[in-house]
Amino acid sequence: MSARHADASLQELAHAYGVSTEYVTDRGGRVTVAADTLVAVLASCGVDASTPEAARRALAARRAADTDRLLPACVVARAGSAVPLRLPPGAEVRVALEGGGETGPAAPLPPGAHVLHAVAGRRRASAPLLSVPERVPVPERRAWGFLVQLYSVLSRRSWGMGDLADLAELASWSGRALGAGFVQLGPLHAVEPGPLPDPSPYRPSSRRFADPMHVRVEDVPEYRYLEGEARRAVDSCAARARALNERVLSGAALIDREAVRALKHEALRRVYEVPLAPGRRAALEAFVAREGEDLTDFATWCALAEVHGGAWRSWPEGLRDPRSPRVAEARRELAGAVAFHRWLAWITDEQLAGAQRAAKDAGMNIGLVHDLAVGVAPEGADAWTLQHCLAGRMSVGAPPDDFNRLGQDWGQPPWRPDALAAEGYRPLAGLLRAGLRHAGALRVDHVMGLFRLWWVPEGRPPSEGTYVRYDAEAMLGVLLLEAHRAGAVVIGEDLGTVERGVREELAARGVLGTSVQRFEYLGGSEGRHGPLPPQQWRTNCLATLTTHDLPTTAAWLSGEHVDLRARLGLLTRPEPEEKAQAAAERDGWLAELRRLDLLPDAGGEVVALHRFLTRTPSTLLGVWLPDATGDRRPQNLPGTAGVHPNWRLPVADRHGRPVPLEDLPGHPHVQAVTRVFTDGEPHGTRTEERDVRPGPCSA
C-alpha cells in the first residue's frame, strides 16, 4: 500500500479506537504518526481503513453503532458509588449482583463483577458491570526482602535449576532468621515447548498457569509410592538431573532449562501413573472444576503442541481455532495427554501454595511477590486461546528514546481494547487472579501498559509504531478488584518513560511504584543533577539498587559493566566517554554516601548503598540476591541473545563461583548486607505501627 496522508476521517477513526495520531517523545518532541501505521493498527482491530473511502465507511459505521448502543460494552463504577450511566428518559435499569440478588443502579455496589440490564422501550441490553475498589491498601509496616530469579537459586537437591522447594527454603530461612517480609520472584509462567533460543521468563507461553519445570519431583505425594520399573526410571532421571546440578554448581555448565524440563517431564509422567488416593482424586477434581475452560484450553494446547510443535499458526487449519469442531475432536483423541497436563498444572499449583505457606509460617507479612509479564509469545498457549482478544500482526514495544534510539520490539501481541471490553475484561481478570492466588503481592511489569501500549506493525521497525490507549479506569479497576479479592499488595514497575499523571493515579489507587537507585537523581534521571537524597524518595514504592536487566551493584561500582558491553559491541559512544560517564555516576553516589556518613562502612560500598536504602521512606526495600553474594554478572543483558548467557546463570560470588542455597546463611557478604536490615531489632520482632519510618525493617 502506498503512503498517504492521514485525512480527517482516518484521524477521527483512529481516535475512536484509541489509536494515537501523534505522540510526544521522551525529549519533549512531537511526532506525527504515519497514515500507513494507523491503517495497519486499525486493521489489527478488524477495521478496514485501507482507502479514504473505506475509512469514511468505517467511521460512519462506528458513529451509527455508538448512537444505537443502549449500554457501553462494559461499565466500570467505583465500589460504594452509583453506576455512571447516560440513558434515555424512562429507561429501566437493574443490576444482577455477582453473589446473587439484584439492586438498582443508584444503590452503593459491593466490589465485584456484576451484570447491568437496561430496557428502554423496545430496546434491551445487558453489559458487564465492574464495581472496583477506590484503592487497595499498602503494607501496614515496612518490610525488606530478596529479589530473585528462581531458576538461579539452586540447592544441592535441585535438578539443575532452582525450584519451588528451594523457594520455600529461601522464604523460610530469610523470614525466620533475618526477619525478611517477602521474596520477590521473576515470572514463573509456563514457557513454550522445544528449543529456547532466548529463555526469557518475560516471554511466556501462558501467563495463566505456572510452568511444571519449577516442581520438586520428590515432593509430589505420589512419588513415594513408585515401585519396580517406574521407580528405577524416575531414579535414573534424578541421577542425571543431580549430575547436571553438580555441573552447574561447580561452574562447569550453565543452567539448561530444556534439559531440566525434559528430565522432569519424563519423571513426572511416571509419577502420574501412580493411582490417586480418594482424597487426592477429589482435590484434583476440585482444581479442574475451579479452573474450568481456561485449564482445558491450556492443557489442550500443550497436548497439541506435543504432536504438532509449539507454533500453532503452522498447525493444520482446523486446529488453529480453539473453538473449532476439529479441536474438540482432537481433545477427545488426546484425552490422556490433556489429563496429564491438567495434573501437571495441579501439582504445580500445590507446590506454589506450599511455598507461600512456608513464607507466611516464617512470619513474613507479605510472603511471595509474583511477577506478571507484560505479554506472551505470539505462538504460545495464551495467544492461541485468547486470539480473539489479541491484536494480530502487532507487537508490543517502546518508541525510540535515550535508552534505545531505535526503539524496542518485544515480540508480544497486545490486548485489543475493544475485544477486552466486550469480554468484560474476564481474560485479564483470570490471569491476575492466577498470579495473586498464592501471593501476598503482585508485581506488574510495565504497569504503564494499563494506560497505553506502543504497538509495532509486523515487519516494521519500532520507530514506525504508535501508542494505543486502553480504558485505564477499567484496566486498573480489574487489577484492584482482583488484588482486593486476594487481600494482596500491588507493585507497579513504572520505570522508563512514563506519561504525565500515570504515577500519580497509580499512587492514588494504592499501587506501589518502583524506585531503582541508578535512576534516582535530582531533576530526574535525564537531568542527573546529583543523587536524589534519601528523604526525597517516594514513600509508597519498592526501593532497590538494581534489577535483573541492570548491572549488579558490584559490577556497577567497578565499571565492569562498561567493559562487558564494550566486548559485546553494545556501546553507542566511544569507550572512554562511556567509562568517564560511568565513573562520574559512581563517584557522585559515593560522595552522597560520604555526605550521609555511610562511608567508610565495614562492609564496603555495596553494604553502604543498602544502608542508604534504609534512610529512604520507601515502604518496601528489595535486595537483589546476586548483590548480596557479590555477583558481578548480569542475569540479563538486553539485546544480547546468543552472545551472553541471559537467564542461565546461577547466583554466584564475586569470583563467579556459584553459591548454593545451603551456603547463603554462612556467606560473609550475605551476612554483611542483610545485617543492614536487622541491626537494632531482634529477628522476628513484630510491630503494628501503620506509619513507615526509615531504619531497620521488621517482619
Q: Helices and strands: which structural class?
A: alpha/beta
How is the main sheet built? Answer: 8 strands, parallel
CATH-level-2 architecture of the domain at 143-205 and 350-372 and 419-445 and 474-678: Alpha-Beta Barrel
Query: CATH superfamily name of the domain at 143-205 and 350-372 and 419-445 and 474-678?
Result: Glycosidases
Percent helix: 25-40%
Gross geometry = globular
**Residue fraction in strands:** 5-15%
| CATH structural class of the domain at 143-205 and 350-372 and 419-445 and 474-678 | Alpha Beta
CATH-assigned fold name of the domain at 143-205 and 350-372 and 419-445 and 474-678: TIM Barrel
Q: In what order do the strands lie side by side in the largest sheet?
A: 18-15-12-9-8-21-20-19
Overall strand count = 21
Mean pLDDT: 93
Task: Determine the number of helices (DSSP H or I, runs of at least 4 residues).
Answer: 21
Kindly provide the radius of gyration, computed on alpha-carbon positions and rounded to a whole number of angstroms: 26 Å
Q: Any low-confidence stretches, pLDDT <50, length ≥5?
A: 680-694
Report how far the terminal alpha carbons are from each other.
Answer: 61 Å
Describe this structure in words.
By secondary structure, this protein is an alpha/beta fold. Among the domains are: 8-68, no CATH class; 75-132, no CATH class; 143-205 and 350-372 and 419-445 and 474-678, TIM Barrel (Alpha-Beta Barrel), CATH 3.20.20.80. It is 38% helix and 14% strand. The protein has an 8-stranded parallel sheet with strand order 18-15-12-9-8-21-20-19. Strands 3-7-6-4-5 form a 5-stranded mixed sheet. Strands 14-13-16-17 form a 4-stranded antiparallel sheet. Helix 15 links the parallel strand 19 (513-516) and strand 20 (541-544). The longest helix is centred in the middle third of the chain and has 31 residues, at 278-308.
